[in-house]
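Why do we care about 3D structure at all? Because function follows from shape, and shape follows, mostly, from sequence. That is the central idea of this module. The next example makes it concrete: a single protein chain, its amino acid sequence, and then its structure expressed as tokens.
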Amino acid sequence: MNASELITRQDLFKFKTDLLKEFKELIGANKSALHQKKWLKSSEVRKLLNISPGTLQNLRITGVLPYTKMGQTLYYAYEDILQILEKNKVSEED
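And the structure:
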């Protein structure tokens, strides 16, 4: 991207829509492997959502994804992940 390119609100909205769609697809594909577990470790959440450690940290810092800390290990409720995806669901008409 060169310095003269701008990112519009529409670009950001499309990015959000595409990202959430990918998250839903990944959750669906990995649901059978991980849905029996109530609590997931950071590495499992990153694998499930196909996100980087930085993105996961950003979701924690902004309060989007609640977590529990036991010692040095962070845990995330599987149900919280599903609720976040549902809450941010975008219909095709939007």
